[in-house]
């Protein structure tokens, strides 16, 4: 029998192999990521594995897909449920992007600590918003919804096998093999000719809308390895002649702890696609929709820490607008060093980041009672604090990656009021609760504190 985590690991590996065949520059990205990780491990030793073992980091991937309707989103949720992956977080890229990115998103991923350690594969999944009048007028919305309703992304056999794997939490080997073949095939780039006129109609509104609603299939848009030094990876990829986007999205490089998520990518490549013209003939064309993203993960911030992060981004934007000649990275670094604690211990003491706690094997054994505050337990050597890895995404960074790989700004009418979506709406669309990432991190931290309190025989909650 093949368990859910084994299905997840196999799916991630096969998807990576398939994507490398379709987009050879992705294989280069994976190779360079591995080289950088090996170099960092040699240079830093155990410190390099502070945010995950090297085996986990090397195997780690996140994918990105795009669907058009709540029905398609529910179906893809069934496929990922078979892999032990749950919807976590609500992201509104319409509001995070300056250009036309008419999608809302969630990320499907494991949520249990052991499952994340076994294989942390996650898929950032975006859904088109045809009902938003800022992008689509009534006529185009009607045509787009009819087009989407008429297509089938996932065969019934795949969905049935997914439901069985979800219910039984495993599949017999032969059924697992069939499920994996069908699942990987569902995300391959289709050779079916693209309706050129229809695609161009949507592309004028948004390249993202065209990629979702201009074709009769879906596909992996990018597959992302994890790297321990994203700045060095950026340098090496550029050195190899691969065109990268202009910036690394997310927090700046600085001397303090890595927090949240830093991302960059190589630019979307012009890939040959068959195009059906209005007269019915098929011609050779090219579309730029797929790219190679890479990420470096840091410590998960608390709600308070995330509010500070967003506030600092505002400071950076303001200073960049006033000092156009100064590099954004230099401004961001200075803001970070001025406002963000420079050590993990300070982050924890300020309640800005999540940690798990465990008894230190070298803790005091002089017969004295331990303190009842977490910070004092750590300071006096009773307890060790280990940072919780940020497993999720940043709307502004995701939008920045999308925008950097678009062929144009698209059309967005801000005089019209946008259609409202939120996590509750998305939960209803999927048919499962979209989980709150902050709550997941907090539960992880609180479980460790409860265990420490129990082992030290401390009554009440630790402060």
Describe this structure as you would to a colleague:
Helices cover 46% and strands 16% of the residues. It is globular, with a radius of gyration of 23 Å. The chain has 19 helices and 14 strands. It is an alpha+beta fold. Strands 3-4-5-2-8 form a 5-stranded mixed beta sheet. The model has no long low-confidence stretch (mean pLDDT 91). The protein has 3 domains: 2-297 and 390-432, Roll (2,3-Dihydroxybiphenyl 1,2-Dioxygenase, domain 1), CATH 3.10.180; 301-351; 354-387 and 437-463, no CATH class.
Short description:
The protein has 463 residues and is α+β, with helices and mostly antiparallel strands. The protein has helices at 4-22, 24-44, 54-59, 70-81, 93-96, 113-118, 138-149, 156-168, 173-186, 196-205, 207-213, 230-239, 303-322, 328-339, 344-349, 374-379, 395-404, 423-430, 437-455; strands spanning 2-3, 61-67, 86-92, 103-109, 122-128, 170-171, 194-195, 222-225, 261-266, 270-276, 282-288, 292-297, 355-359, 383-387.
List keywords for this structure.
463 residues; alpha+beta; 2,3-Dihydroxybiphenyl 1,2-Dioxygenase, domain 1; 3 domains; 3-stranded mixed beta sheet; 19 helices
